[in-house]
Amino acid sequence: MRRESRSLLPLEGLKVVELGHYIAAPFCTRLLADLGAEVIKVEPPGGDPFRGWGAQKDGHSVWFSVHGRNKLSVTLDLKSEEGKRRVTALCARADAVVENFRPGYLERIGLGPATLQAENPGLVVARISGYGQDGPYRDKPAFGAIGEAMGGLRHLTANPGQHEYPPPRCGVSISDDLAGMYAALAVVSACWGRDRGGGKGRVLDLDLVSSVFSLMEGMLTEHGLFGWVRQPQGAAIATAAPTNTYPCADGRWLCIAGNSDLIYARLMTMIGRSDLRDDPRMATNGGRCAHAPELDEAIAAWTRTLPAAEAQDLLEGAEVPCSRLYDIKDCAEDPHFQARHLVARVQDPLLGEVLHPAPPFRMDGVGPEEMIRWTGREAGADNDRVFHEILGEPRA
């Protein structure tokens, strides 16, 4: 974690205030901070409740080491006069503020966009909520799972014809992360537009449901034109074949994507099914989609005879896209992850040496590990610096 590399980061000088908790807004600001923005995270006096989630070491959140990295932490009671005064002062010097409270909460406590932009007309206010700032559902509570459910994703994760078990979630809070990514893009775009077009800030409205819904590819258009409703495909996908996840002799799973005509031919040659390679029914992707179960059966019959790693090596030798299903240990130890510096070893004053997922951005002049200037701090660790050095308040 080399502080001198910060000047090479593209968002150096961008000032962001985070009024976030749990996942969506803090994920947005983590991306901005990784790219060099100054992020001041405002937490309640007891700290972001997210600090209580997941594993702990010596009373400190392991997850928060990543969640709060590269941010300054201050503690304020937003309902107190002092808290509101300080937040207003922080926003007065900021380019953007990111929040994910229930719609209307900031207005009720006197910190709504109109109030903050009255002090700083150029302020970009990014608001992330479950359903958005308007509409009949705006006041309903929501967490990430609700975004997956209503946005259409969870319907697709079931196995076809399986009704005794609920469709699984993907294992992370994907709708919060998506909303955070969209918010980060919107913040940077709004700041760019403000600086080019007269200096006026904007209010950005992002939500979990629409973030997931935006990923539904051509499904809405298909429904509008043909009345189609795409049904669960399990590990497959309706629009390409063969692409699925296949069992191997060692109990592992192998994901294979033989989507294009040329790759399909190489795949069938490798598994010894030249009959399917040359079958005119399989000459196009549309034809293969119509006969996907037959293809999946043939591929699975081959993968079941080999350990996953051996099957992967053979297919990669034939230039067929494939991968074993990695768990986090696989990720941490994989030579490609290491060569790309995707797994960063960093020193956390609260936890010791820890592994962080490196920022996914690659740019010349700065390495991904160098983007991690510091790990998540204790709640309020930067009160003195922010209130007295940055805001210039006199010390008692």
TrEMBL record:
Pfam families assigned: CoA_transf_3
GO molecular function, one term: transferase activity
Origin: domain of life: Bacteria
Alphabetized Gene3D superfamilies for the sequence: Crotonobetainyl-coa:carnitine coa-transferase, domain 1, formyl-coa transferase, domain 3
Alphabetical UniProt keywords: Transferase
PANTHER family: L-CARNITINE COA-TRANSFERASE, SUCCINYL-COA--D-CITRAMALATE COA-TRANSFERASE
Protein name: CoA transferase
UniProt source species: Sabulicella glaciei
